[in-house]
Specification:
The complex is a heterodimer. Chain A is an all-alpha fold. Chain A has helices at 4-22, 28-47, 51-69, 74-101, 110-128, 136-143, 146-170, 173-176, 179-199, 203-224, 227-257, 268-271, 273-286, 294-308, 310-336, 351-369, 372-375, 381-386. Chain B contains 26 helices and four strands. Classes of the chains: A mainly alpha, B mainly alpha.
């Protein structure tokens, strides 16, 4: 994972850059901030679990606030403010929490343990937008430029998640001793995210809530450890990949329509077939339908859930997955498929952006068809987790 | 070098890739011929496996690790080979038919042919895999292929809606299979169903989850409602979906349960589901006036027969079920292709707008009649042998009620196909189509249909050609003894089958007498067919049409139509949507609008939670 994660972030950042050359996301400042965030995240993940990595990621988070802000609209400014109000206390909480636990190898006194875990839970929940600390995420997704949202959700959030998953390896007691609270947040995020995603009519808000669901599932994998942790790593990579595809497809639709894409938009596939195909592949990949890459993470997470919580937890996961499927099937069939004519504000084709999405969608399928290309490469972590 | 068991799969997936690579260089017809050739090569690569599994043996091989510590392992036994032959053989015939059918399709032929090949390839993986996780992967792969093929004309709302229903119902139930596999893995530590640890880990709950997944795939009541909605796909898709590759995946899983472990405690429940399904399916078929929807409901009914046979839990029952699987694939594939030919030639599949096609499409009519005879169970067709075996197996298992239900359903099936045949192919054409230039379909389409119809007759006259080399190894592979004795023109079983034989002879005699009488009193022209209307003669030129049949069925079976589960599904969806909307409103009003307060409250909650631990 030490090389795979930064490599994936670099590739996704490159894809976002190429896409944004075709579908403009912002002025020079946007490019500066997006590039800076990518560099910070890649550097942080290369450094692994360390103070320097934490600080670099915190700077990347603050830069992400600015990335949202630079869109210049009142809605974007409001969303950036909410994001800032969330991120600043979150950074404070995680820094203090990490200071208390030190290297993490040895647990401090019980009172300090509890204080540190409280701060870490609140800090990471705020950063990742887990329920009930999610309030900034849908606003940012809806108001920022599509690729800004992708940078926040697919790169910054996943890098933050990798920091959390790294803690599972160096300080497992944080999760094992306080598992009920972590589990409650994970389950609440999964169920709440899935239900709230169904309640949305705007596609980018829907994508934000589905991220909450997915991060809840990934958190569950971290809690379960072993095969679950491997599933969380693989799932995090898939989340990043599919979210860039999904926001990219919606971004092309918005660019061509000149307005946000909602469930009242109809028949987009006729006008923009490649973006439509990418959205469908990204959606199936995200919710773990074979042969998408998501399944490689999902089966591990389900397996971990069967060991961690037995049949009740598996039943819970099935219900959440069913809600996810309902949500994405509705989005695909109401927005993309169908015969209704659609009026495009821009007739300018976006070949480069479509090409980027096609390549990413092909990666989603090819990695799903043969995940051992990646998971085998990810050994010995995978081997340690899977083999007795 | 790749083991021989992987060759059919490799050929099909490689062929799909070839279709994509060569797309720019091939015409629409050439793509079709290429897909057909690939399916034929796959079929030829399956046949050498037949002798290897003849006496119940199995071939095992591992190709590579699909994922870390998840091997792509095959366990090819008689059951696998039966489904492989069916998938590639019928797939090849359907692809041959597609050459003519898709010739005028301007867009998406590469997508169509590559998906069809992946569809068949997915079935190969499903039926050969020794690894339950790979089996689930293939299960969903063919599910996704069917979704994309049903939504082939995604710009048409009915096609898109049908595809969504396919996706939702079958995928929901598929989660049951995934959950079952994960619970098995948690208990046994292996994904290989050939490992005895899996059988030891099997529980009633896990069996139920697997059977529910199988029920949705093989259109068992009440999970059958997706199949009539999938009819807005290109006809080759419908044919493949109904005959070989999709609904059969469900019955494959039911049959495979005999290999996986002791599941027989659930067999009586499945028997009940099979009987209800065969009855409900045929009753719903009776009121249809759309030819493909009519056939779709007959698929529901026929799958009920198959599941009933498999759930009898005897060697004879399993033999009947497996022979029925292959027979159904042949005649249902033929019927769908005929329906597609009718639509191709006339532009409609509405029986109310059809009639008199016999004089304009004699080859298609002949093929239709053969396949219709097979589904009705007329002697000298494979359908007769299948039904005979099933009735005999049910009698042998002391399930007389099953025989009565199956017999009644057979009568209704005959009634339904009489309606379809008379309305579509005989009488005078209605005014809407009489002026149309209706011509026979291209030769490639006729060949595709004809090969399968010929097989219906071949395996009706000489069922031992299918039973001995193909069905018997499959039965043996599931741990049952082979006690079916065969001869020409039918089957004589080891059990007391005098009554069934006498019944079959009576049916055969009646059919021959009927045909003779028809020849004597009428000349085979395209004139209207006179029928007894229940009272005074109808005015000259009038006749009973499909609407009359539909109304009659609706009156006679009104209580059965109230068993349609779709309104319940709709209410469930409405409930979920309203609940989500209510939660969304609360979240917006309480959490998002008052974020600082909400965060403070949640922080306090987390602190209390942590402090209490």
């Amino acid at each position: 994972m030490a090389l795979i994660l930064p490599g994936c972030f670099a590739i996704l950042a490159l894809a976002i850059g190429l896409y944004s050359m075709s579908v403009r996301q912002g002025a020079a400042m946007w490019w500066l901030l997006a590039g800076g965030i990518a560099l910070l995240v890649v550097a942080a993940t290369l450094l692994g679990h360390s103070w320097m990595a934490t600080i670099l990621l915190d700077i990347a988070e603050l830069a992400a606030v600015a990335l949202v802000w630079v869109r210049g609209t009142p809605a974007a400014a409001r969303a950036a403010r909410m994001y800032l109000y969330s991120i600043v206390p979150a950074i404070g909480c995680t820094l203090v929490g990490l200071t208390i636990i030190g290297s993490g190898a040895e647990a401090p006194s019980l009172v300090l343990q509890k204080l540190a875990v409280c701060l870490l839970i609140i800090g990471f929940a705020l950063k990742l937008g887990l329920i009930p600390f999610y309030f900034w995420l849908p606003e940012v997704a809806a108001s920022a430029a599509p690729m800004s949202a992708a940078v926040v959700i697919a790169i910054v959030d996943i890098a933050t998640f990798s920091e959390l998953a790294g803690l599972r390896e160096v300080a497992p007691w944080i999760f094992e001793r306080f598992a009920p609270v972590w589990t409650a947040i994970a389950l609440l995020s999964m169920a709440g995210g899935a239900v709230l995603a169904l309640a949305q009519s705007e596609l980018k808000r829907m994508l934000a809530f589905s991220s909450v669901t997915d991060l809840g599932l990934l958190l569950l994998g971290v809690l379960a450890g072993g095969v679950g942790l491997t599933g969380a790593w693989v799932g995090a990579l898939n989340h990043a990949l599919s979210k860039v595809i999904l926001f990219g497809a919606v971004g092309i639709a918005e660019y061509r329509l000149g307005r946000p894409v909602t469930l009242d938009t109809r028949g987009l596939a006729k006008a923009i077939p490649l973006a439509s195909a990418a959205f469908v592949i990204g959606a199936f990949g995200l919710i773990g339908v074979p042969p998408g890459f998501g399944f490689a993470g999902y089966w591990r997470l389900y397996s971990a859930a069967a060991q961690y919580g037995g049949p009740p937890l598996i039943a819970f996961l099935v219900v959440v997955a069913a809600l996810d499927l309902l949500c994405y099937a509705r989005a695909i069939h109401r927005t993309w498929y169908g015969s209704a004519p659609v009026t495009l504000a821009s007739q300018q084709p976006v070949y480069l952006a479509s090409g980027v999405l096609t390549c990413l969608a092909a990666c989603e399928v090819l990695l799903g068809l043969w995940p051992s290309v990646l998971t085998g490469f990810a050994s010995p972590l995978v081997a340690q987790a899977l083999l007795p | 070098m790749i083991d021989a068991v992987f060759v059919p799969t490799a050929v099909l997936f490689g062929g799909a890739a070839l279709e994509i690579v060569l797309a720019r260089f091939l015409s629409r017809s050439a793509k079709g011929w290429l897909a057909f050739a690939i399916a034929v090569v796959a079929l030829l690569s399956v046949t050498p496996l037949l002798p290897e599994v003849r006496d119940g043996q199995a071939l095992s091989a591992t190709l590579l690790d699909w994922d870390a510590a998840v091997p792509l392992a095959y366990h090819v036994d008689g059951l696998s080979v039966l489904f492989m032959l069916m998938g590639t053989g019928i797939g090849a015939a359907i692809l041959l038919y597609s050459v003519g059918y898709m010739k005028e399709e301007e867009h998406g032929t590469t997508r169509f042919y590559s998906l069809m090949l992946v569809f068949i390839g997915g079935l190969m993986v499903l039926v050969c895999s020794a690894n339950l996780l790979i089996m689930y992967f293939a299960w969903e792969l063919i599910g996704l292929c069917s979704y994309f093929l049903v939504s082939f004309w995604y710009q048409q709302q009915p096609a898109a809606d049908g595809a969504r229903k396919v996706l939702i119902i079958t995928h929901f139930a598929g989660y049951g299979l995934l959950a079952a596999i994960m619970l098995l893995y948690a208990r046994s530590g292996t994904f290989l169903w050939t490992d005895p640890a899996i059988a030891a880990a099997l529980s009633t709950g896990i069996v139920v989850l697997m059977l529910v997944a199988a029920m949705a795939k093989s259109v068992m009541y009440p999970l059958h409602t997706w199949i009539p909605e999938a009819m807005n796909a290109p006809t080759p898709v419908s044919a493949l979906l109904h005959s070989a590759c999709y609904v059969k995946a469900g019955v494959f899983l039911v049959a495979r349960m005999y290999s996986i472990g002791p599941w027989q405690a659930m067999a009586p429940a499945l028997l009940l589901v099979g009987c209800v399904t065969m009855f409900v399916g045929v009753v719903f078929a009776l009121k249809q006036t759309d030819l493909k929807r009519l056939l779709a409901f007959h698929t529901v009914s026929q799958l009920g027969y198959i599941v009933t046979g498999l759930a009898l839990n005897t060697g004879l029952g399993v033999a009947a079920g497996l022979y029925y699987i292959a027979s159904h694939a042949l005649f249902k594939g033929t019927l769908f292709m005929c329906a597609g030919a009718v639509q191709h030639a006339t532009g409609t599949r509405d029986l109310r707008q059809l009639g008199g096609l016999y004089s304009r499409m004699p080859v298609t009519t002949g093929i239709w009649i053969v396949a219709a005879a097979a589904i009705m169970g007329v002697p000298m067709t494979n359908g007769f042998v299948a039904k005979w075996l099933l009735f005999d197996a049910a009698l042998d298992a002391h399930q007389a009620v099953v025989v009565l239900i199956a017999w009644a359903v057979s009568m209704l099936t005959a009634f339904s196909f009489l309606k379809a045949t008379v309305s579509g192919f005989f009488g005078s054409p209605p005014s809407q189509t009489s002026a149309q230039q209706i011509r026979e379909v291209p030769v490639s389409m006729q060949l595709g249909m004809g090969v399968l119809a010929g097989s219906c007759v071949l395996f009706g006259v000489a069922p031992q050609l299918l039973l001995v080399p193909v069905v018997a190894p499959a039965v043996l592979s599931l741990g049952f003894a082979w006690d079916v004795q065969t001869n020409w023109l039918g089957v004589a079983t080891g059990s007391d089958s005098v009554g069934v034989t006498a019944g079959a002879l009576a049916v055969l005699t009646a059919a021959l007498l009927g045909a003779g009488a028809y020849r004597l009193v009428r000349s085979p022209t395209g004139n209207a067919v006179p029928v007894f209307s229940g009272g005074d003669p109808l005015p000259i030129g009038d006749r009973l049409g499909p609407s009359d049949f539909a109304e009659m069925a609706e009156t006679a079976f009104k209580p059965v139509y109230s068993l349609d589960p779709d309104p319940i599904y709709l209410r469930i969806w409405g409930g979920i949507r309203d609940f989500a909307a209510a939660v969304g409103r609360v979240a917006a009003a309480r959490v998002e609008r008052h974020a600082p307060v909400a965060v403070a409250a949640c922080t306090a909650g987390v602190c209390v939670g942590v402090w209490l631990l």
